[in-house]
Specification:
This is DUF1697 domain-containing protein. The protein is an alpha+beta fold and about 180 residues long. It contains 6 helices and 8 strands, in the order E-H-E-E-H-E-H-E-H-E-E-H-E-H. Helix 4 crosses helix 5. It starts with a strand and ends with a helix.
Length: about 180
């Protein structure tokens, strides 16, 4: 049985696309996922599955959420190995944890897309590094001031994106294999 992490984007924000985590958990168990655990209300899910790979799970979860809750929600799924590697590869790990964020991407962006992103963000005081399906961010000001949003990443990198602060990423890491 394989363990996965699913990150949903844009649920329970300002009262929009409301999904209670207990209801989400039940809906995922109905489609055959096991050991489903959630962390906070923003759509962080750890679960096990024997029948599907990460790409299949993204489609399955997206369809299930739309059918059950009526919301078209971007879903990113990583295996536990991918998640752990993402945690280990943070180039800014020695910085203050309060300034660290991670944007997870649905697919690995092309080199030319990364180059475009780096040009767009070159004038920012924030620092980023793209490694695989992750954009590591060092944001010195409060996050809501940055111009480095999911929309910027999606436009430049041509893939779905969802951002979490580093504390949340570490908390999700703790949920693995518990």
């Amino acid at each position: 049985m394989s363990q996965y992490i699913s990150i949903l984007r844009g649920i329970n924000v300002s009262g929009k696309r409301k999904i209670l985590m207990k209801d989400l958990k039940q809906s995922l168990e109905k489609i055959g996922l096991t050991d489903v655990r959630t962390y906070i209300q923003s759509g962080n899910i750890v679960f096990k599955s024997v029948n599907y790979n990460a790409n299949q799970l993204e489609v399955l979860l997206c369809n299930s959420i739309k059918e059950t809750f009526g919301h078209d929600v971007p879903v990113i799924v990583l295996s536990d190995k991918e998640w752990r590697k993402m945690i280990e590869c943070n180039p800014f790990i020695k910085e203050d944890i309060n300034h660290l964020h991670i944007t997870l991407l649905q697919s690995v962006p092309e080199k030319k897309s990364i180059e475009q992103l780096m040009q767009v963000t070159a004038i920012q005081e924030d620092k980023i590094e793209v490694i695989g399906k992750s954009v590591y961010m060092l944001i010195k000001r409060p996050y809501h001031y940055t111009k480095l949003t999911n929309r910027v990443f999606e436009r430049c990198l041509k893939t779905k994106a969802s951002t979490r602060n580093w504390k949340t990423a570490l908390k999700i890491n703790e949920l693995l294999d518990k």
